[in-house]
Amino acid sequence: MSFDNLSSNWSKLRVKRPQPDQYKDAPYKWAMVIDLDACTGCNACTTACYAENNLPVVGKERFLAGQAMHWLRIERYWGEGEELTQEFPEQGAEFLPMMCQQCESAPCEIVCPVGATHHTPDGLNSQVYNRCIGSRYCSANCPYKVRYFNWFDYPTNAWPSPLEQQLNPDVTVRSKGVMEKCTFCVQRLTEAKSKARTEGRIVNDGEVLTACAQACPSSAIHFGNLADSSSKVAKMWNAQQVELSAYPQKKDEQREKDEQLGKNEEVVRGYRILEDLRTYPSVVYLERIRSAEV
Amino acid sequence: MNIHNEEQEVATEPRFVIKPKDINDEISWAQINEDVLRSLERPRALYWVIFFASLGLFCWGVYCEIYQYNTGLGVAALNNPQVWGLYIATFIFWIGMSHSGTLLSAILLIMHADWRKPIYRFAEAMTTFSLMTAGLFVLVHLGRVWQFYYVVAYPSERWTWPNFSSPLVWDATAIGSYLTTSVIFLYFGMIPDLAICRDKATGVRRLFYRVLSVGWKGTDWQWANFRVTYLTLACLLIPLAVSVHSIVATDFAVSQQPGWHTTSFPPYFVAGALYSGCAAIITLFIILRYTFRFEQYMTIPILEKLCKLTFAISMVWTYLNMIEYAAVWYGTDPVAKQTLIFRATGTYAGWWWAMNILGSVVPFTLTFKALRTHIPTMMVVSLLLNLGMWIERFMIVTPTFAHGYYPWTWNDHWWPNWVQIGIIAGSFGWFTMLFMLFCKIFPSVSMYEVKEMVYHRSQARKGAALLAASAPQPAKS
User: Fold this and answer.
1) Which residues contact B428 (CB under 8 A, 6 or more apart)?
2) A131 with A116: CB under 8 angstroms?
């Protein structure tokens, strides 16, 4: 944010809601689709994330104190009273992998006093560790609570020698007192983009995957470039009739009309979490389909 | 006959009403000097008890802060949804405390309420020190406090600026300007008194007061300039005071969280600020009156007026509080409503009800003259009111974190641990210590304004008596 920008181009700095043609000419807009029907809750994605992004394992005590650093967490939900009626409640759980939703109109970005979290041209919600002063306002304003704060000095504590040898050299080890969160494995994206640039093309679909998408054994997590209309993710978003910059979605309006007319045909199952807050997330979840009796 | 009588009443009655006796107007100017300067010499033993107790608390707070600084904020029982804890709640509390000094010294100055004169100086000092304490909380709560200057818009060789859309940047700017202005205002208003101290002091102290009194001689020219500047500063300070707490309120109102995203927050915060500030002034009034033997200046009628002011503000606060509940209850946001229900019935229900009772019911004790003029009762009541206002801030910050938008992260059993409580106790120690030091080093009663007050009152009384004697008596029929 330079002084020239401030003095001459103030309107550019205003936070706007996403526009429909925002990524029309852009080469990249990273996005995700998570199929909850395919998710088995195995936690492989979480483990892969820990390994890829140098996340500290905080131990049981701090985990129970709410100080875990899992950028990607598997949430478990039960229907009302369900966990009490079943002998093995884990069997009936529904799983939801939750990570930073990379909102297009992110609540965290406008409140950061130092601009440590901001939007990149390829649609990521980035976090600049060097700039972060740890006011934690971003986390306070995040409706999903997917931002994690370095409560302790993990670089010197979490990896006793020789464990520091297994750290990923492409990822910063964060110091005490900064905020961090899921980056969509930005180190992989950057590498793929520079490789593609040297070859004079854009990144092919499937050329780069986040660690979680790569590790998912049931292929529940799909990752790709939404700006490339031929990519798998773009096709899935289209099939689910979810538009990045729309709220309410056309299909929701259609569904309301259908309900009024007495029609009840579910054709799509894609939704974005807490969409009514108009954060415009980049992650689409596909509803789980349960048969009447398991 | 009738018409004649009425005219006479109109002419004589309203102009010569003698106000209730706030201060003994026969007290001599030399006596005022002597009484106030005595406060710089020999306070009662209670002064030292309070001073060392607050010093001890402050040291304990420093120990907790050093431990937290070295180990990381995790030792303060903060966790993922509860990222702010009591630090921000107490920060708002201290910012709020800083408002009544301005109310007494600037707003009442412009409104010509002369009963403020014996008590505005210490209220103004309270403003300054509570602002300093609030500023400390911003630092205590930062994860990387050594980088706090990133928030300030300073010229950087990399052309990096703070994010001007963030309320925290507005905060830093507003608190910085308010602190600067209130320190200047406090010091500037003290210059004639510092000159009196200089004239009476000896040795090193004389040098100290001589430097601070910047050559004040009390000439007409100096007084004229002094008056104009003081009034200008007062006018500058009032909008700053109102804006500071409005901006602190926007920290919450601008965010998206249930229970915070309320447009009535800025006036609600300002009312709460004036409320807790007035209650704190009553507490300090009673302490100073006893420890420095200021019974002649900090009189019961003045205490009564303070109490009435506090009661009025408490009712404004109650009204705005009800508006906030009503706006949420009848509003369209189901999550905000659920958070409100959680406050009233969830884990923190006891605190929520305590806040409402302490904030809205306890001030009704101030409506009874017998209680208003009874000093021990007022000490307890004023402390209770401030406790209520601290809980109010706690109830704004914590339940929203405990019961926000995302059910997976609900954390309704959160409770602060000894590090947080130690730092908060330390902040009370730090404030009291600074305040007590101030009262010992600087005259905490404004000598020149009390002289003015005494002079005006005695002149008014003499004039009224003279006129009453010379006025033609209506013929008795």
Assistant:
1) B54, B57
2) yes
Which tens digits make up the pLDDT trace of A177-204?
999 999 999 999 999 999 999 999 999 9
Of all residues in chain A, what percent are helix, strand and coil, respectively (each to 5)? 30, 15, 55
Note the pLDDT of residue B110.
85
Pairwise CB contact (< 8 Å): B74 & A152: yes
Q: Write out chain B residues lying below 8 Å of A113, CB-based.
A: 150-151, 162-163, 166, 168-169, 172
Least confident residue range of A257-261, A288-292, B33-37, B369-373: A288-292
Which of B169, B255, B257 has its CB closest to that of A113?
Answer: B169
Residues A48/A211, Cβ–Cβ less than 8 Å: yes
Domains of chain B and CATH, by start? 28-410+418-446 (1.20.1630.10)
d(CA A274, CA B335) in angstroms, rounded, equals 11
Task: Evaluate if residue A176 carries a pLDDT over 60.
Answer: yes
**Distance (Å) from the C-alpha of residue A13 to the closest C-alpha of chain B?**
9
For residue B71, the distance in angstroms to the closest alpha carbon of chain A comes to 6
In CATH, what number is assigned to the domain containing residue A127?
3.30.70.20
**A87 within a domain of the structure (yes/no):** no
Contact map slice: A 162-191 vs B, CB within 8 A: 175-179
Into how many domains does chain A fold? 1
Q: Which residues of chain A lie closer than 8 angstroms to B142, CB-CB?
A: 133-135, 177
* Residue from B409, B411, B413, B415 to probe the interface with A (highest A Cβ count within 10 Å): B409
Which chain A residues are Cβ-neighbours of B174 within 8 angstroms?
Answer: none
Determine how many CB atoms are found less than 10 A away from the CB of residue B421.
16
* List of chain B residues whose C-beta atoms are within 8 Å of the C-beta of residue A67: 74, 79-80
DSSP string, B268-282: HHHHHHHHHHHHHHH
Structural domain contains residue A36? yes
**Chain A residues 76-95 within an 8 A CB cutoff of chain B:** none
Beta-carbon contacts of residue A281 (< 8 Å; ≥ 6 apart): A101, A102, A103, A104, A272, A273, A274, A275
Q: Quick one: CA dihedral B344, B347, B348, B350, positive or negative?
A: positive
Does position A12 have pLDDT exceeding 70, yes or no?
no
Residues A38-88: tens digit of each pLDDT: 999 999 999 999 999 999 999 899 999 999 999 999 998 887 776 667 777
Domain that holds residue A230: 25-78+92-286
Q: Which residues of B touch A155 (CB under 8 A)?
A: none
Kindly identify which residue of chain A lies nearest to residue B152, measuring between CA atoms.
A114
Does a structural domain hold residue A294? no
Mean pLDDT of B80-103: 90
Supply the pLDDT for residue A46: 96
Give the ipTM of the model, two decimals please: 0.88
In a domain, A142, yes or no: yes
Judged by a CB distance cut-off of 8 A, whether residue A132 touches chain B is yes
Q: Strand A283-286 vs strand A125-127: parallel, antiparallel, or unpaired?
A: unpaired
